[in-house]
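Field reference: sequence -> structure
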Amino acid sequence: MTEHRAGPPDEYVEAEIHRLLAEDPAVAEQGITVVRRDRGLVLYGEVESPHRREEILRRVAERFPDEPITSDIGVIRTQAPTQVEELP
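Structure field:
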């Protein structure tokens, strides 16, 4: 028996989320991957701040209110190193 899901096919959901995040000037994020799992959507990638990650999750949840959203989005260091790297 095949399980049928309501709503658009996965590739449309993924494309719509990519478009939403890339075209929104407040986010302008292209490095997020979206995967559908048994219990909803999982967002993967890295961003430069916790605030940006929360904004991405908020916007995706607003657009897909009936989808459980899980974040596997990490925060990368954006500050310059505090120590000088010495090469041999």
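Note: The longest strand covers residues 40-47.
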